[in-house]
Design a protein that fits this description.
Structural class: mainly alpha
Largest sheet: 2 strands, antiparallel
CATH superfamily of the largest domain: Fumarase/aspartase (Central domain)
CATH class of the largest domain: Mainly Alpha
Number of helices: 11
Number of domains: 2
Distance between the termini: 47 Å
Order of helices and strands: HHHHHHHEEHEHEHHEE
Oligomer: single chain
CATH architecture of the largest domain: Up-down Bundle
CATH topology of the largest domain: Fumarase C, Chain A, domain 2
Strand content: 5-15%
Radius of gyration: 25 Å
Length: about 290
């Protein structure tokens, strides 16, 4: 029986519809949910709810789940629906009632929030690094070819003399601004919701500051009500910052497609970035146009 299921026979079609692709999507959340659960287990021990032995056993099994996931051996089933149930089922199977205790003082609400935020923070760090690589690539392009001149266009008409350095600087400067926006989102996102329960806190003496520190957050999200209200709000902020980066890449790709046309000839795309034509073998078509 599912955690949420009532004493009613489950309709398999409804189950398939509601579960959807969640088992596949949640695979990427497994290490983050385990990381938050490890912090929660340590906090439960500090509060006297778990013995040292119980907490150690839970931490050991949670780490083993992370190891299994890294090898591709921890798979979420359709019946489990998500990583949270899959992890809890594993703990209960291996540790019995000790495994069930991991849910003490924690709602699915703050559990899901914590796992998602840890995932987002990790992803933001990775995106920040790739964006810096982009800036360095533009800088290298300017160093090598910056003085090469070509016509600058406005409204698809030749306007003034420009050069590669001016063109590349536009993308570098804009990406610097994008990274400032991404850093703000990271700072806002870096708040621990653990201990907020379903939106009104939990009636247990849990050290939320310690939990946040152990889970890898820089601070606690104080209001349990706001923790729930921030669901979706933080994601919109993140999507907006990522959209700015995608806009940058789209503009760059559009310029390269246009300026690598034989009519212009400012740039030449590597053949690996192009496909051919089914009827005209001489054509080299940028892959992003396929």
């Amino acid at each position: 029986m599912k955690l949420w299921q009532k004493n009613i026979k489950l309709d398999k079609q409804i189950e398939a519809f509601t579960v959807g692709d969640d088992p596949v999507l949640d695979q990427r959340l497994i290490p983050y949910d385990c990381k938050a659960s490890i912090a929660h287990a340590q906090t439960l021990h500090k509060a006297g709810i778990l013995t040292r032995e119980e907490a150690d056993k839970l931490v050991e099994k949670l780490k083993s789940i992370i190891a299994l996931d890294e090898k591709g051996d921890f798979i979420i089933t359709q019946e489990q629906e998500d990583c949270h149930t899959a992890i809890e089922n594993y703990l209960t199977e291996k540790l019995g009632d000790i495994g069930k205790k991991i849910h003490t003082g924690r709602s699915r609400n703050d559990q899901v929030l914590a796992a998602l935020r840890l995932y987002y923070l990790d992803a933001i760090t990775s995106i920040h690094s790739m964006s810096e690589d982009f800036i360095h690539a533009m800088s290298d392009l300017k160093t090598q070819f910056g003085e090469i001149q070509f016509p600058g266009y406005t409204h698809t008409r030749k306007a003034m003399v420009s050069h590669v350095g001016m063109w590349s600087d536009a993308f570098s400067e804009s990406m610097h601004d994008n990274l400032k926006l991404l850093a703000v989102v990271h700072e806002i996102m870096d708040q621990s919701p653990l201990g907020t329960g379903a939106g009104y806190g939990v009636p247990l003496d849990l050290d939320r500051e310690e939990t946040a520190k152990l889970a890898g957050f820089s601070r606690v999200q104080q209001s349990p009500v706001y923790a729930q209200l921030s669901r979706g709000k933080f994601e919109v902020m993140l999507i907006h910052s990522l959209a700015q980066i995608l806009l940058e890449l789209n503009r760059l790709a559009s310029d390269l497609i246009l300026f690598s046309m034989p009519t212009f000839g400012y740039f030449k795309l590597p053949p690996e970035f192009c496909t051919g034509s089914s009827i005209m073998p001489q054509k080299r078509i940028p892959m992003c146009w396929n």
